[in-house]
Amino acid sequence: MTYETNRFVVEYKKTPSKAEAKTRITNFNEIYADFKPEQANAQASRCAQCGVPFCQSGCPLQNNIPDWLRMTAEGRFEEAFRLSSATSTLPEICGRICPQDRLCEGSCVLEQSGWENVTIGAVERYVNDMAFEEGWIEPIVPAVERSQSVGIIGAGPAGIAAADRLRTLGYKVTIYDRYDRPGGLLTYGIPSFKLEKDVVLRRTQRLADSGVEFVLNCDIGNDVSFEELRDKHDALLIATGVYKVRRLSVPGCGSKGVVAALDYLTASNRKGFGDAVEAYDNGTLNAEGKTVVVIGGGDTAMDCVRTATRQGAKAVTCVYRRDRANMPGSDREVANAEEEGVKFEWLSAPKAVLGDAAHVSGLRIQRMRLTTPDAQGRQGIEDIPGAENDLPADIIIEALGFEPENIPVLFNQPGLEVTKWGTIKVQAGEFQTFVPGVFAAGDIVRGASLVVWAVREGQDAAADIHHYIQSNVSASLEAAQ
């Protein structure tokens, strides 16, 4: 069935069906179903086709959202897919895990005018899942094969996005990664109930089928030197992401019962692959039967609390120092966590870990309150004197965010300049570092951020690398004449 657009006055917003909480916490399957074709048509037809599409400007990738919504409404699914993938190398993944409520859907004119936003993310997912099912997505066959090669360090979203664009341009591409599977955060950081791993695998497999080489279990600086890679390739892209976890600094924080979020999520995802994970099997990184406290308010914290419920935790509590309105994570994820039985302690900060060196018994929290807004409208927080509480806990998970590793030291490249935050410094308006032929993109440049921003920067870095290599080729030809 096909529709015209601008039907928001007669077609109500409907999201894909969602598994009931009591059912979904028994497994790690994705909780949202795909649209049926007529549902996708109908929901896409709600688009108002605005003259100034704020949804597009609210998207880091600047996706041509109104156009592919119109095509979807008209039943032109393959055209919708091709337009969607023209600006995004991972559209079906972004459709699943982007915080659309803060990006495209939050910017939708209908949302701002009281008509409820178009379900952009669900349509994006639907169209691009269909593209795989229908065989529209095939291995990359470049129009021109080039003799130059590019090495990419990091098989996460930025590295995958760059590899896709560079291979399309005809370059030989090799991706190096320290893990045993490609995907980075997509594979080991994000739980399957948000992003099932076969969705990631089919993208990385497409790259492999397109001639991209993956060198896994490869630790740069140990297994191979950075200089070797510089000698081997015409350009290098550092797309390692940020994996150094921020840790608690309160009394008792050194207890073995306090674990880092990424370690916890990685163990869970590895078990999902069927791997042997000793720290999971011995209970260190397993919430089964335990009272769990997660500290943090971002999407990683939501991933942890929702993983704990599925592992069979006795009780799960999230502690965050600000209120719900000021938390950095997606409101949709908070709502999902609440449905799944997670309790939130808002305006609460950790003060001490209770227990001993081997085990924790609880977390002492300090109650907080918001202060008067500053000139920018930002409210601070302060302690409420004498307001403390003790929360029982068998395991405490730190989800306090991530910082960059010391890349110049790890790679033995003192010439790689870093910012005061430890991120790699690139030249103004570019992705090239201050080491010739070495580029950087994604979280290692901008700090811990969203997958969609990593995709955007990976694609843009690929364009910079292409310009750099071709400029060198032209210079060499001129010199030879």
From TrEMBL:
Domain FAD/NAD(P)-binding: 150-458
Gene3D superfamilies: Alpha-helical ferredoxin, FAD/NAD(P)-binding domain
A family per Pfam: Pyr_redox_2
Keywords: 4Fe-4S, Iron, Iron-sulfur, Metal-binding, Oxidoreductase
Residue ranges occupied by any Dihydroprymidine dehydrogenase domain in the UniProt entry: 24-135
The keyword Transcription regulation is assigned to this record: no
PANTHER family (alphabetical): GLUTAMATE SYNTHASE [NADPH] SMALL CHAIN, GLUTAMATE SYNTHASE [NADPH] SMALL CHAIN-RELATED
Identification of the protein by name: Glutamate synthase, small subunit
Organism from which the protein derives: Asticcacaulis excentricus (strain ATCC 15261 / DSM 4724 / KCTC 12464 / NCIMB 9791 / VKM B-1370 / CB 48)
